[in-house]
Amino acid sequence: MKKRMHIILSAFLILLLAVVSSACGTQDTNADAGEQKSEKKELYSVGPLAGKRVALVMQLNLGTFSAQYISGVKEEVGRFGGQVTVFAADGDLGRMTANLDAAINQKFDAILIDHGTPAALQNGIKKAVSQNIPVVVFDADVKVPGVTVLQQGDKEMATSVLEKLAKDNGGKANIVKIWVAGFAPMERRQVAYKEFLKNNLGIKEVAAFGSATANTALDTQAQMEAVLKKYPNKGDITAVFAAWDEFAKGATRAIEQAGRTEIKVYGIDMSDEDLQMIQNPKGPWVASAAVDPKDIGRVQVRYAYQKLHGDKTPDSVELKSVLVTREELPAEKVTTDTLNKHIKDWGSSQQGIADWMKK
């Protein structure tokens, strides 16, 4: 009898363990399925487009703006299930040409281009198109049939921030312009700048400089320090118009170190580092016009995948910019990821999302 009870008890324990094991196994499986479902929800419905290799060919990979732009590219390619390889030329256009050739020869599925000049890019882009490699360009003034070119609305950005400068100073100011030739977006910003001076006779340019180097912000700081020594008196300089955020950073640091914070800085472009400087209540940088750098990368990728999908894409796309001013920002720290809580239209671009990409 005892033996029989022992057998029954053993069988019951074995059955109980099996049930518990089974329940645990089911719980793990459901958890995995939930995680997979959550992950899948964040992917586009790409099907055969998954696993594509995308080359990002850059003239410069400099500063936090470029870092966040690259982040946007990688994030969006990842949503399609692809991989990104970055080819940075450190400002060397000859190297950029070679990098573009390398991307073509390595048979990347799509090529994204960031800045550059027609002379450096045109032949390589034509070669890529002839091999049916989709190409989407950002801020380079190239015109090749079948290639989509993105730009930020540079004239609009320059005009909006310059109008803010004029308004803040009652239409009268002595300003320093920091700008450099040889970049398509800079050239467009310069057109807006000339038109602004023509229409605002109370705004006078007292100095102008600028160069794009491996240490642009640091070099700008040194150049701005020299300008401040040349114009040492309060009122000699009212404001700085910086046509690139690397210029704005250098000018801001020079003004702070010289104790000349009555001089205000008005910039173009935006990054997390820039936001911290603008939010400083005692700092000179008070406004910047910009497109979310991550959005730029995301939109560029979407058009590349439209091309891979066989969609017809436009020759040119203009990205909508916003003006970010200190008075619109809260006291607590803001990043480009949280800026949309305070600045309408920031970081929420739906440009380039085709119907087939939507769930």
From TrEMBL:
Keywords: Signal, Sugar transport, Transport. The keyword Nucleus does not apply. It is found in: Cell envelope. It holds the Pfam family Peripla_BP_4. SUPFAM superfamilies: Periplasmic binding protein-like I. InterPro entries: Bact_Solute-Bind_Prot2, Peripla_BP_I, SBP_2_dom. GO terms for cellular component: outer membrane-bounded periplasmic space. It comes from the Bacteria. GO terms for molecular function: carbohydrate binding. Residues 55-311 form the Periplasmic binding protein domain. PROSITE patterns: PROKAR_LIPOPROTEIN. Its main location: other. Residues 1-23 form the signal peptide. Belongs to the bacterial solute-binding protein 2 family. This is LacI family transcriptional regulator. It comes from Aneurinibacillus migulanus (Bacillus migulanus).
